[in-house]
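Quick question: what would this complex look like in 3D?
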Amino acid sequence: MSQPSVSQSSFRVIDLIRKKRDGGALSPAEIEYLVDGCTQGSIPDYQMAAWLMAVVLRGMTREETAALTHAMLHSGEVLDLGFLPARKVDKHSTGGVGDKTSLVLAPLVAVGGLVVPMISGRGLGHTGGTLDKLESIPGFRVGLTVPEFHRVLKASGCCMIGQTEKIAPADRKLYALRDVTGTVESPYLICASIMSKKLAEGTDALLLDVKTGSGAFMKKEEDAVFLAELMVETGERMGKQMAALITDMNQPLGRMVGNALEVQECIEVLHGGGPPDLRELCLELGAWMFYLGGASKTVTEGKQLAEQIIASGKAFDRFRQMVEFQGGDVRVIDDPARLPATKHRVEVASHLAGYVTAIACEQIGTACVILGGGRERKEDSVDPAVGIVVHKKLGDKVSIGEPLCTIHCHSDAQAAPAKQLLEESYEIMPTPPAHKQPLVHRVIYKGQF
Amino acid sequence: MSQPSVSQSSFRVIDLIRKKRDGGALSPAEIEYLVDGCTQGSIPDYQMAAWLMAVVLRGMTREETAALTHAMLHSGEVLDLGFLPARKVDKHSTGGVGDKTSLVLAPLVAVGGLVVPMISGRGLGHTGGTLDKLESIPGFRVGLTVPEFHRVLKASGCCMIGQTEKIAPADRKLYALRDVTGTVESPYLICASIMSKKLAEGTDALLLDVKTGSGAFMKKEEDAVFLAELMVETGERMGKQMAALITDMNQPLGRMVGNALEVQECIEVLHGGGPPDLRELCLELGAWMFYLGGASKTVTEGKQLAEQIIASGKAFDRFRQMVEFQGGDVRVIDDPARLPATKHRVEVASHLAGYVTAIACEQIGTACVILGGGRERKEDSVDPAVGIVVHKKLGDKVSIGEPLCTIHCHSDAQAAPAKQLLEESYEIMPTPPAHKQPLVHRVIYKGQF
């Protein structure tokens, strides 16, 4: 194994690894050299792996994080939506269980006069993915070309697609390496990965929904806040309007967990109904998107706008239009009973009487994965019909034998391991929980709102 | 990039990387799994690189260090010298400038009744290597087969060879990876690398000469002590008699730096002469080898034995015999003027009058490398004839124009960069240095001596 040759640069990879290992900060040119070399394959994986581990254990400065994001963003195509006169705004969630707000927000915010160019991901681990949810609508195409993406955005103000091969190839390369080298868990690397993809959309403003709690990747609120601040600052350094809401993920959001079930619940919200927590979070996030995109003068005004748009039915109409533009069967939007569904149901009943005081939310997500509704590995396929309907949430009173959840599945045998996991996920105590977590724990925004 | 398949084991490499990343300690079975997988190529380099960086930054327990050493040692052949009735003892130095004691010690200790099965290395960076020095004797073969090694050991009680392909292949693989991933500088990895090779010799006792100072790899004494204690404990866990001397490397040892020049100086010591510091260190190290090998009851007694053997001329005779057995031309041993030598000499004169208060010892070693007497890269060849004769050492008085060193070289032009480096290596002040460092800074030994 010899030191790879260095061309057109005075940097030596070994020196950059040592610098980070010893706690130093790399210059933007040094970081760009590493990212480019990794993407083009001129720097071997073993050197990148050593550097990544040094980053995980030594951290990065804000300047380094911004430089890494910048280099990864510019490793590929950056969309230019300048041909659309309206301001562009997007939302990114760090992932949770039953986290389905994107399907409501994209049409809602588009009706408010902004453009929402949403590039989303698939589910991995215990969390669901927007693309998987959309694909439970028969015919829905998430793999549009860039010209098609432009056309749908122009026609309906919103479009929801998957990451193209051309966007942030450095992230794909680095993420694959991080995944097998124990270097995923670094706020600096997570920030650069998320932001490099989101900023490639050509958005002017970006709202971050950073989840915290038992169903989130960041279980501790301080970790969520740290990541949120890092992403907000990184976006601001690149001239974007940024804010982050730290939101609760100590229980599933809404009542539905599973792809077609979640689409059904979003349609309820777009019709003005749906469970209170999901509805409320959609309005809060929508309000912030309006505010960041300049469609409202305050967040409060933004929230009023969001409520009016939902009530008018226009958000639903716009969702239906987007589905149609993207090849989806609108009959299932008009009649959600036509969405993929299982014939079998299994109830998960409570063995105790009392109050729900804690939910191991990650396990609820895992139960859905076990049913086939999510992915353990990237290459797994997803069953759109299976899922879990959550009847009892934090603080709810339950009696013995009362259903906590209902499993949508194909047979009792298939449901058994999920059922056991769900039973174990609920903590039921004789007295109600002392206090209820708010939906929005904290707002990270540099300014008044 | 997918997770490599795991066969015949329940370990997942990613879990072992994460465990170390998060500061945990791996079990011996987990470490063996990594070392075996790396050696056999079933674990990819990028995963090993991430784990190595985590080890550098998180450290290892004593148990882990011993387990790593054990796994690396048993990745290859471990010599069994049980057919020789005498106790076996060896010495290992962490490397320095003018550090040539092995050539004196092997025959000296063999005369005292012990067997010295010495497997040595080549020079790398600013330090010289025993094999390069021996090869300045025309005909000397360091690449003996194991049966030849046994035969020479049986006949003369000492033999000095290079590492065979079969010894500690895990170390060769890991070292090559560490070299390009910034993971060389870890006492735990250095300990396992040294000890896995040295214990493969089949020795009963091992004396460590851990250098500290401006010409050593460990510039700080605390780092040298840490490494020494780690190696002593690791050897003891494997049932070996162990001790370490922390010795001074703030100036070259003896007066000669360069391969043939150093052989010449060793012959002087074997004849009862030589510079006082080199002679003294050889006697100290020899005393400890006798003591650890059970040839003397105390170290003091061991030193008397070493002095007697040198004075008797038997150590020289044994060296001559070993050279003969290993194919070397003994005429150069009998008449060192026949050793490879340059025709040209360049004096490095002092520009100042005063006392030598500091020597940048690593630079003296680098000057020898620049002349061609050492290696910048493993594949470089070495010129046996070039080198530096050091006239002025720490505390010596110098007048303007008096020579500090003499460069043995082929031309003025060749000597120029080395000359400049040597001039810059000397600090000369009006008053002598406040105190003189002792030759042996400290002894690491668990017991009385």
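Answer marked as accepted. Chain A is about 45% helix and 15% strand.
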